[in-house]
Design brief:
21% strand; seven-stranded antiparallel sheet; 483 residues; alpha+beta; Protein Transport Mog1p, Chain A; globular; 18 strands
Amino acid sequence: MVSRYSIVIIVLLCVGCSVNPVTGERDFVLMSEQEELALGRQHSQQVMKAYRRYDDPELQQYVQSVGDRVARVSHRQNLIYRFTLLDSTQVNAFALPGGYIYITRGLLVYLNSEAELAAVLGHELGHVTARHSVRQHSLATTTNIIGSLIAAASGVQGAGQLTNMLGTGIVRGYGREHELEADGLGVQYLINAGYRASAMRQVISTLKNQELFDKKLAIEQGREPRAYHGVFSTHPDNDTRLQQVLSGAGASSVVSGTTGQDTTFLKKIESLTFGDSEKDGIIRGRHFYHPEMNFKLTFPSQWLILNKPNAIAASTPNNDALMQLTLEDLNKKITPKEFLRIRLGITKTLSEKPFSVGQLAGYQAIVNGKTPYGQGKVRIAVVFDGLRAFVFFATTKRADRFVEVDKQVLTSIKSFSRLNAKDRKVAKELKVVLVKVGQHNKSIKLLAKNSPITHHVEDQLRLLNDLFPNREPKLGDLIKIVR
């Protein structure tokens, strides 16, 4: 006998079908185009709360113009597409429903031709034209409904969560197919827009090289390697993607037609910021400088520093100790001690006392608390600076190392100070500069000699110029360095 739950599922599948703009076949979706556009508008506001537009109107317009050229030959030419360059070091590009497409300067800086930029934007266009996010949203919504029905019928409260997890797995699995489809669509759009289709292959190779380099760093730093589009990546393994693209749409075009340097493109991205921006703070060796907030901080020797959007974090090379600095607004006239009690909710401490950093008042304490390593001792310090509170946390994996590490952490906290004229000279953004390869700079080793890049200089210069892992530039070529 067919249950009422089966009938509901059948009804959902029947009413949730619409014609896919790309394939012309019926797809399972529970969202109209108007709802899709509204979802895109909503999510675009969230994106711009998390990111900034890169402050270069001319370069923004260039990215938009390349995107427009590709969009004009896409399957959904009725949409208005917005292509935005984000001020982020992340190597990333992504699309929202309804035509909102983003690329970070962290990815743009590694591209070497307009065709490669068009390939990135064409791939993301493929997600929009094929309504991938809408299809995933519809599948997830249906899975939640079915999960609730199963939970209600079975009385098992976890059934909804279990089915939702299964749904997420299915969505991510379909995501793999979506990525391959987006690659194929991107190749079609490249060809139709007059770009060489081999640029898609080159972009995928660029992403693969980024992953290989990050794996090398991850081993050195004792962490998990990052992946393009996140740890739980919807992008297939790059080798697989490469083979799929080569055997997909426009395959003969993909593997042929390599050209010389795109000097026009290279000149467009000259002066692009490389690495940290002054708005977010600059890392130079052990030192962190924030020109806009007018402070600097020196971390313990050999510690690895990570500049996050909402915090500055540092850890030992083997990741057995860490510290973090966050910034909080002050809303009431309270003391650092009261901040510890009221804002941080700390009432029990192992030790506590006031301290000062230069002319700035602070308060420090050691508490027992939850840490990334489990339960353990935590150093907490608060420093007031005008209308802001700088909040420091530090802990260790092993209890027997806490005293030793705590001394280093306190030294670091007390290094907090205003920037002087010399600091401001050091705390400048690195910018892309083009140089012509000649006898005096004919190798990456020679180019790396005076580079301000602080680590793996040769690797990073090779990544910038599509020479990774061990190729050398050609005499007469324009090559990207940073200054």
